Structure formats: C-alpha cells, structure tokens
Amino acid sequence: MRFILYLLLFLLPFGSKAQTYQQKIDSYRNEIKSKFEKDTFGPLRKENIGYLDYYTANENFVVQADVEILFGEKPFRMPTYDGTSNDYKRYALLHFEILGEKHTLTAYQSAAIFQNPQYKDYLFLPFIDETNEFETYTGGRYIELDASKVVNGKITIDFNKAYNPYCAYSSGYRCPKPPAENILQTHILAGEKAYKGPKNERPVNKAMAKNFTEKEKAIISSGDVSSKMHVYLNTDEKELAILKATSQDIKIDDPLLEILEKRMLATVQAPEHAGVGIAAPQVGINKNLIWVQRFDKAGEPFEFFINPKIIWRSKLTRLGAEGCLSIPDRRDDVTRSYVIRLQYWDKNGNVIEENIEGFTAVIFQHEVDHLYGILYPDRLEEQAANQKIELNEKLKFSIENGNIRP
C-alpha cells in the first residue's frame, strides 16, 4: 500500500505558513505524482499520471474525530479485490461530524506490519461513500492515519488526502475491500476522484525475489531428494504461524530450489497422505512454490510452479468438497472461481500465463491461498457472509460418462 512509499511525505509539514490550504494539498498531490513517475514497478505508467483527478481542496472535509479505542479485538481476514484476503484488527471507532451530520468509521491495524516498529502506529482507514461508482472509484478509497497523533482522545481525519487503491490503476494488486461498517451514507466531495485512464497490468519485479533463509535451508537439507518432508499442521501453534504467514518470491538460481522441488513432490505423493497439491508453507518454507496435479492434461501429471499468482478469477463459481494436508480429518464444501488466469515463472525466469478451469483451477486456488497465509476454513468464514445467485436452472453442465472428475 501507499504508506511504504509515502510515509515520510505523510508525516512532514508542508511548506511555509503563507501557503493556502489548497496550495498545501496541491503540493502533497504533486509529491505523490512524482513518486509514481520514479517508480518503474508502480501501478501507474509515467504517461498515464496525467489522468489522476482530484476534488478541489475543501477544509469542510477536515474533521476532528473522537477516538474510541477497541480492546480485545481478534484479527480477521479483510477480503481483497483480487480474491484473496489480508489479516487486520479493528483498532478504534472514529466518531465525527461532516456538514452537521454524525458518522462513524473504524480504523484498522494490519497484522502483517504491526510487529514492525516502524509501522506500529500506522492505521488504515478504508471507506465507501455515496460518490463511489459515480465520481470516485467504485471500490472505495483509503486514508492513512498515525495513532501517535491521537491527542486528548481526538485525531484529525483529512478526507482531502483520500486516495484510490492501486487496483483502480492496475491489475495484480491485493487491495482490501472496505468493510460494511465503513460505508458512509453521505457524499465525501474531497480527495481523489475516479481514475479514467488506461488500466495497466502490474509489471513483475524480479528483483524482489529472495533466497531461502538459513532456517529454510536447514529444513530443505535435512533429507535427500527422495525423502518426504514433515507436513505442518494447524493444530501446532508454531507451525500454524508459518502456515498463516505471507510467502515471498524465490530466486530461480537458488541452489536448493531443485532439492525442495523433489522433496515436496515426494511429500504430496506419499501413500499415507497422498494429495492433489502442496504449497511450500506446508513444509515450513515461506516461499512461493507449489505442486499441482493437472487433471486438465493427459495423464494427469503433477507440475511444479515457481512464484505463481492468480491474476484473474471468473465471477462464475463452483461449490465442491475440499480437504487439506495441513488440516487433518476435515472436509468441507468451498466456493471457488470456475476459471482463473495463472501467472508464474519458468525455470529460466520467463513469465508465463495460462487460463485454467474446472477442478484443476480449484486446486490452484487452494494452493495459492497457502502462499498468502489463507487456509480454506478462512474462505468458509468469508463466504458465509456472501450472497450467491444459484444458476442451476439457468445453466447446465455435463461430462462424458465414465469420467469421474468434476
């Protein structure tokens, strides 16, 4: 999210006291544009920055909010627009007035960065208002706050600094959906307007790939290439922490990659817990690597995928039973997209994309979820709150007699 790039900008004062408020906001926005221009792997191409559009600065949308700190809140998974989710915790209710009307928004802490001292005070404020879909981005907007700025139980919210999720400009980003409790029944005529330029595809930044950590090296090297690995279980607290962590891209030239590849295959094909797929976190390795059995190919081979990402998911979904090597003695019906578009690296570092459908697409979604720290029961919790329209009477699927695969 934008805080990583613009935290210093967010905290620094603007210019001289002689500046008007509009000039201060213009300066703030110009600095953001400058950051976009310099970021080769950012969501906006340099030639499209001119499409950024904003409301005129309006001090009526700078409000003082009463902060009601929330205690004992448990982390929850906030769905994202790419079909995954991120761990957040509700931090505080912010009560304020805009143009004489009372409103409340919830501020959140990101579980992924809360442990980092640099971001311990970072608060995330996503919201939707009545301008969305018309004048502003359909998926809502974001504001960033600093918990250390709470003074006497109050904090300033400047809606003129509301900005679009990166998903407004480009595919390939995991932008959180504002929760239902953060829908405002008013028009926030401030901040960034809808982006109307061409939508980009997020470039692959191979420089972000990492080698295995020392701990991961020890795990990989603990057996020969034909020996299966210990499967991490959700019933063990330390192992669950690995399963719930977000994984990183791996460098293709890491000397232990081939060994891990073979050991993961031996693990998923072991007779005592044979499966149709396995992800590296399930053997204690937080790197983006999976094995998937390709039921959509002749011979139903297992295939190894390096740094896989699902960059598109169909709105059409299917319901089917799933189990997990890391969750013993449990099976449930989970809703998954019927078709996906997968992006991954081959062993030469080339970026490959392909469309996958049916049961094989389900396996890919299950395994890629592991790379984001998502277990399938997390999906059940999300889906319990969603409403679906049954298409059983509108569409008919069929399969040749004798084929047992869905």
UniProtKB/TrEMBL annotation:
Gene3D superfamilies the record matches: Peptide deformylase (3.90.45.10)
EC number(s) recorded for this UniProt protein: 3.5.1.88
Annotated catalytic residues: 367
GO molecular function: peptide deformylase activity
Co-factor note (free text): Binds 1 Fe(2+) ion.
Keywords: Hydrolase, Iron, Metal-binding, Protein biosynthesis, Signal
Residues engaged in binding Fe cation: 324, 366, 370
Catalyzed reactions per annotation: N-terminal N-formyl-L-methionyl-[peptide] + H2O = N-terminal L-methionyl-[peptide] + formate
EC class of the enzyme, as a word: hydrolase
Keyword NAD: no
InterPro entries: DUF1684 (IPR012467), Peptide_deformylase (IPR023635), Peptide_deformylase_sf (IPR036821)
UniProt xrefs under HAMAP family: Pep_deformylase
Family according to the record: Belongs to the polypeptide deformylase family.
General function of this protein: Removes the formyl group from the N-terminal Met of newly synthesized proteins. Requires at least a dipeptide for an efficient rate of reaction. N-terminal L-methionine is a prerequisite for activity but the enzyme has broad specificity at other positions.
Name of protein: Peptide deformylase
Native organism: Sphingobacterium litopenaei
Upper taxonomic lineage: Bacteria, Pseudomonadati, Bacteroidota, Sphingobacteriia, Sphingobacteriales
Name of the coding gene: def
